[in-house]
Amino acid sequence: MRVYRLSSLSLPPADTRSRLYRGLTLVREHGWNVRAADLSDEVLKDWTADDVAECLPEVTAARYAAPILFAFTPDDRLIPVKVFVYAYEHYCRYQSNPSDWLDEWAEFRFVQFQYLLRLVRLARDTGEPFPSFSLFDFGNYDRLVDDAAPIDREGRLRNMLPLLLPRIDSILKTN
Question: SS3 string of the chain?
Fold first, then answer.
């Protein structure tokens, strides 16, 4: 049994035709510096969760047992969560404090990740310019979110995201 290793997570054998495999290969090929402009429309769609709230329990569970998420779910199930967990685990291990993975910010960063992906999709769908940024620069997410929409980290972002994500989704569906 071959183990496909991209980060410190040991992933099960991957189907090279799977959407997850293609997405994680993109991450590896760009050396963790995947910019919004690097994403094809197909990958952007794959990485955008249909229902962010539904994914949060999976992110929470992955904080304690990330390899299980990869080993026991089919490749193309939970792609948004798997890509985030893969990238955030790498960020925490190599660019931040390794213990950060075990705090409550993982879920918050996942919501921010989804928010930024939706803004990229919205900009593409409407033809509006949107600055290219590194998707996995989690240390700068607060600034990126503030630049994209001035919402503060402590209060308004947490309270407004449940309202903003469906609105952005409805705009995306009509375009």
Answer: CCCEECCCCEECCCCCCCHHHHHHHHHHHCCCCCEHHHCCHHHHHHHCCCCHHHHHHHHHHHHHHHHHHHHCCCCCCCHHHHHHHHHHHHHHHHCCCHHHHHCCHHHHHHHHHHHHHHHHHHHHHHCCCCCCCECCCHHHHHHHHHHHCCCCCCCHHHHHHHHHHHHHHHHHHHC
pTM over 0.90: no
Q: Could you tell me the sign of the dihedral formed by the alpha carbons of 151, 153, 158, 159, in that order?
A: negative
pLDDT tens, 107-163? Answer: 889 999 998 998 888 888 888 877 788 999 988 888 887 776 644 444 444 444 555
